[in-house]
Amino acid sequence: MNNQVASTPTVETASPIQVPRYSYYALGVLTGVNFLNYIDRQVLPAVAYAMKQDPRLHLSDTEIGALEAALLLSFTILAPLFGRLGDRYSRTRLMAGAAVVWSIATGLTALTDRSPLIPPSLHFVVPITQFGVQLSGIAIALCLVRALVGVGESSYSTITPTLIADYFPPQRRATALGIFQAAIPMGFALGYVFGGVLAHFFGWRVAFMVVGVPGMIAALVVWRLNEPVRGATDTHHAKADNHLKPGAQEPWLRTCWRILSTRDWLLSTLGYTSLTFVLGAFGTWASLMLIQDKHMSDTAANVALGVTVLCAGATGTFGGGWIADRFAAKRHNGYFLVCAASSFLGIIPAVMALVFHQPAFFLPAIFLAIVFLFSNNAPFHAILVNSVPPTIRASAMALNIVTIHVLGDVISRAGVGVLSDSIGAGNYAVLGALARSLGIDPTHEHLTAALLVVPFALLASSLFFLWGARKRPRTGAAV
Predict the structure, then answer these.
(1) Closest to 114 (Cα-Cα) out of 45, 36, 196, 209
(2) CATH 1.10.540.10 given to domain 22-469
């Protein structure tokens, strides 16, 4: 595989690294919009219980999973398009337009079931499992609107890390990306809190309408950001490589092959795909699990999750970026090692969170699991943006998004719902037996039993990152 670019930058000068103040301002704006992005995304899991209880909807676990999968499928399918556009055109303009699209679509979710254009119901069989899936017309309409949310989010998530890479030099990127990625747990957390509280007092429709408004305002601020020169903060070695291989001018398939054949990109993406499977399963189903299987009230479950995710996610994301930058300064494979350790250490608390039934035990376990899960965010994205030249970074992010979602949380968000309904119907005896051995009743706690796939995905993530860490340093390599 192509190892032309090392995962850890070479420091070419001992002088202090100066970062312009505007770079920090831009990072703050981009982080704020990412925060709103994840609030909008997380409102649906927060109000899922209220939507299931709505007599107009009466959604099943399978249909809730389908709504989440619809968002991620559109997000994934369009990521390569926005990656290519991000390598050629103004990234700030593309991101501002994206924020407008997902904000409008979030608000429309509240009105979809009132539309006179509800499609007919749909029945199909899931390949391999042979499990029949029935989606009502309202569920299909909601899927279409959630897919529109994914259209906007695919642009923003694909392009933003490439902008940050051009605002900050390699030696500061993991920390900067850690700050940006900290918006994910914060958005997750407040999505749970805002969605749960608004749904409790005003109904689930108001929750979608309210959270969609700030994104429209944020789009104006993003529109006015200065567009940095691609590769402006990279070392002279990387700039020379960019001059020789300008990704924006070469054919798309050749660019894809260059990215896919880069060892660091491939192994880090495989490791993060397994982690994304876990994050998708947790993000969609944790609230319902606490309500249905742990017997918490819907408001208490969402507030408890919100506070836990906020504290643990921020700790993991900031801490992971800070530790990774310092560890990578001493070891060429530091970013990979931090990712491998984080995924592995998350296995035990993830199992404990599923097994325990008392809040005094399962909430601390959830906290620890989230700390380790989010510790991967900053070092992983540092590996990703450092592994390819600046001229094709948006395309590399796009291919990464396609991979981690198609093979990761698209499967877990929809699959756990299908698996839960199937276990509740008495299928998947092996998984049911495993659940019973851990003290989980698969008949009444079928959602918790379905989530037992999470520890296995964490183990796979750790092994892929450990594989990436085994690479020997190359002499003279630089970002």
Answers:
(1) 209
(2) no
